[in-house]
Design a protein that fits this description.
118 residues, alpha/beta, three-stranded parallel sheet, Haloacid dehalogenase, HAD_sf
Length: 118
């Protein structure tokens, strides 16, 4: 994705590197540690609210991207999460953004937190 979509990331982590699988805290905190960052300086981007909830409980920002057929939570749970304050950024299917998905996340991060996404 870095080469073909021009996404500016340098690291890709696998749960196997941390001897655990999501939603175990070792995965989220291990990635932060490898980056040399505090959890609050990091964000988990996912289409699974249970994984995002676990990341948020570890102190990371939670960025949710709606994807049809991906979410295991029922409609009521999803709506409660959407209305809550624990999801940092919610990228919905109805967003009128060309591209959507991870590109929208990058735009929002740039606009909200003034970080570089060049």
């Amino acid at each position: 994705m870095k080469d073909h979509a021009k996404l500016p990331w340098s690291y890709i982590f696998s749960a196997e590197q941390f001897g655990a699988y999501k939603p175990h805290p070792a995965v989220y905190l291990g990635a932060c540690e490898k980056l040399g960052l505090e959890p609050g300086q990091c964000a988990m981007v996912a289409s699974h609210l249970n994984e995002l909830k676990a990341a948020k409980e570890c102190g990371l920002q939670a960025i949710y991207i709606e994807r049809p057929g991906e979410e295991s939570w029922d409609a009521e749970q999803v709506q409660e999460a959407k209305e809550s304050d624990w999801v940092t950024l919610w990228v919905g299917l109805d967003d009128k953004v060309v591209g959507g998905g991870i590109l929208e996340v990058l735009r929002e991060l740039r606009d909200r937190w003034l970080c570089s996404v060049d």
